Amino acid sequence: MKKPLNKHQEHFEDMILTGDLSVLDFFNSDCEISLKIDGSPAIVFGTNPANNQFFVSTKSAFNKVKIKLCHSHEEIDTHFQGKVANILHCCFNWLPHTDSIIQGDFLGFGNTDVVQPNTISYRFSEVVSQNIIFAPHTVWHTDGELKDAYVIGSAPSSKKNLI
User: Fold this and answer.
1) Would you say residue 10 lies in a domain?
2) Does 162 score more than 50 pLDDT?
3) Which of 40, 41, 68, 135 stands 20 to 30 A from 118 (CA)?
4) Can you say whether the dihedral through the CA atoms of 22, 26, 27, 28 is positive or negative?
5) Residue 81, in any domain of the structure
């Protein structure tokens, strides 16, 4: 099986804003589309295949040189500081431990019905009772190190994806 490359995918709205209108043909094709949820920061978490330990990180988990995987609160403090470190501490405590490697967007903290991680506000029909609000979107796999990871699928879409 040929492994897909670990590369950035352009979003429709970005392509249109740069003058590439060919993307509009997509809407007349037989395909599936999904909602882009934009949180901050992007979070990667799961089981590190190198040591079978749970980890959290930002997209720096996929760096080719300086990989920042955090298997403990101490490692979070070593690699990150400020707001990102605080968010990673909460993710370390509250994201589910899984054998997969999952990437998603941190939207905010629970006990509210509105979060605004960037310029877009997300309003929920009821107060979110979970500690954090997280939107998973990509599942990764690697036969070796995380820097060699490739996408194997999208996180299934449902209201339950907001952790």
Assistant:
1) no
2) no
3) 68
4) positive
5) yes
